[in-house]
Automatic annotation (TrEMBL):
This is SDR family oxidoreductase. GO terms for molecular function: oxidoreductase activity, acting on CH-OH group of donors. The lineage of its organism: Bacteria, Bacillati, Actinomycetota, Actinomycetes, Propionibacteriales. Pfam families: adh_short_C2. PROSITE patterns: ADH_SHORT. Gene3D superfamilies: NAD(P)-binding Rossmann-like Domain (3.40.50.720). InterPro entries: KR_dom (IPR057326), NAD(P)-bd_dom_sf (IPR036291), Sc_DH/Rdtase_CS (IPR020904), SDR_fam (IPR002347). Keywords: Oxidoreductase. SUPFAM superfamilies: NAD(P)-binding Rossmann-fold domains. Belongs to the short-chain dehydrogenases/reductases (SDR) family.
Length: 298
């Protein structure tokens, strides 16, 4: 059985997919996607890189967050999973895989657009795992809208609440619990540098995530807490089929955009989060690790 350490050609490690046009209401269930994203269920092999760690992962029911949650459990961490209540079916799949590793899974459904929910989430993580030393903000909202006049104020605000405010609220609430050695990893995007014209709210939040993270990183390094960022490129997830992009473009998803000639699978994002959370990245602070198949970034 091959795993993430198998030496092979990255262009063909995962198939070049051409997903059929499909659409779900937000937030989208991964279990109803064609084809199903690869979270590393069969292939991610842990080697003890996060032994004994206690991690909070948002958006952990599906896509990149789910791949991170599974990888963290296989590396020896307990995981608190945040997701929306309507995503319970996807979350159950991930919880089962975490528990199969003999690790604790703490499930906390809730809406991160609300500050009170974010604070309650952090408390539930601390109570459920007996502490907290890793925060991974992966949850995100992306809704395509080609015309500025049609981008309503509610969407603009909800995108900022989900992608920026929630990270701020969660980090602030987590701080009193985080011992030196703790890590925070936030999720930006290629869109932080190359905003798609039909995703201006989303793309600008990702620029904010990068900037916010680099600022906070400088404050928290004095407490022995490291903050870093992962900036994914096109990755096959539920976000894309729940109004994230123009559904007519799905058959070409990631293929012409990325020099790799294909979209990433969520499992390919997970090692970046593992590296930035593990003590092996002890001197990496305020960095953005771009995982985008070769698209140039500043
Ligand atoms: P996904 O839909 O599988 O995951 C996003 C998750 O965000 C959802 O599962 C949901 O649990 C969570 N979420 C959204 N709104 C929420 C809310 N109000 N309250 C609580 N949780 C909420 O899609 P994904 O692609 O894995 O997205 C994960 C992150 O990766 C996002 O931040 C996204 O912006 C980023 N990203 C994705 C891509 C890509 O191509 N898929 C590229 C760059 C960045
Ligand atoms: Mg989901």
């Amino acid at each position: 059985m091959s795993d993430q350490y198998t030496f092979d050609d990255p262009r063909t490690r995962f198939p070049r997919i051409s997903p059929p046009v499909q659409q779900q209401p937000e937030p989208g269930l991964q279990s109803r996607m064609t084809p199903k994203p690869d979270l590393g269920e069969e292939s991610y092999r842990g080697t003890g890189r996060l032994t004994g760690r206690k991690a909070l992962v948002t958006g952990a029911d599906s896509g990149i967050g789910a791949a991170v949650a599974i990888a963290f459990a296989r590396e020896g961490a307990d995981v608190t999973l945040a997701y929306l209540p309507e995503e319970q079916e996807d979350a159950d799949h991930v919880i089962g895989l975490i528990e199969a590793e003999g690790r604790t899974a703490v499930a906390v459904p809730g809406d991160l657009r609300d500050a009170t929910s974010c604070r309650a989430l952090v408390q539930a993580a601390v109570d459920g795992m007996g502490g907290l030393d890793a925060v991974v903000n992966v949850a995100g909202k992306q809704v395509w809208q080609p015309r500025l006049e049609d981008l309503d104020d509610e969407q603009f605000e909800a995108t900022y609440r989900t992608n920026v405010f929630a990270a701020f609220w969660i980090i602030k609430a987590a701080l009193p619990h985080l011992p030196p050695g703790s890590t925070i990893v936030n999720t930006a995007s290629l869109e932080a540098y190359q905003p798609a014209p039909d995703r201006i709210d989303y793309a600008s939040t990702k620029g904010a995530v990068n900037n916010l993270s680099k600022g906070i990183a400088q404050q928290l390094v004095e407490r022995g807490i490291r903050v870093n960022v992962v900036a994914p490129g096109p990755t096959w997830t539920a976000l894309q089929v729940s109004r994230g992009v123009d559904p007519e473009t799905l058959p070409d998803f990631g293929a012409s955009e990325s020099p790799m000639g294909r979209a990433a699978q969520p499992v390919e994002q997970a090692p970046a989060y593992v590296f930035l959370t593990s003590a092996e990245s002890s001197f990496v602070v305020g960095a953005t690790l771009n995982v985008n198949g070769g698209m140039p970034t500043p």
